[in-house]
Amino acid sequence: MRLFLDRIRLSLLKRTGMAQKKKNYEWWKAKGYDNEPEVTFIFQTHNKSLEVCHVLSKLRKYEGSKEIIVIDDGSSKEHTRRLTEALTGPNDFLLRSNDLFEVVTYDRAVRMANGKYIALMQDDDDFAGTSWVSKAVRLFKEHPKMVILGGKQGSDIELSADGLHRTKTVAQGPFSFACCVCRAPMWINKELFDQYLHHNDFLFAPVQYDDDEICLRAWTLGLQVGRYDARFRSLSAGGMRLWNKGLLAEQTQRNGKRLFQLYHDKMEDIQQKVDESNTEI
To answer: Buried b / exposed e across 13-49, counting CB within 10 Å, b at 16+?
Structure first.
């Protein structure tokens, strides 16, 4: 019955011409949609809309062209409504998913993004100003083979059949190359990603060590992974660790073994490439 009544309503709108008066080309053009933004900011969030909305106003102050994509991963109606009310710009997008977690949702959002450089972010990230954005853009231009840039920390890693052992690198100046970097932020050169990496490895779904895997894969393909200090701080407990502590422990063991199987025989060559890249800085 409701479907039948709505059909009548839409038919009346069509006949009276009221619907056609709502939109036209000038109306669309005035919105200022940018199909080729310089950067895309992608947030992964679960029930933490307040934290995301807190930093949206800061991101909008970046003077370069930009778009914002927020992945609402299974949040309540309250959080979805708050994000909908906040994301009102022509280059703002809200993706509603159902607890697919980081590997799948980040992958989908990256393929949707139009930015030349993409920043993968978390729902507990906070920062002062936008200098970390302009610094990342500059570093990508200085290092044309760099496909990934981490703003949190870079790591050398030791792989073992029963798990993963991570060793933090000692920062060499404001920038250096590293075997792996962690989110967030994790920057991506969109053109290189599309040409060489294509996607996250879904074997690591729903979460954990997929960021390590894609970094190691980049090195094996002749690309580079860099690190710098974005000077992020945490607003609150990270969403993955807040809602999925038990799953993370399980995934750490499972994906640590997967990483070993895929890359243990390639680590010596990867480390050599990292060292050689650092000598050229």
So the answer is: eeeeeeeeeeeeeeeeeeeeeeeebbbbbbbbbbbbb
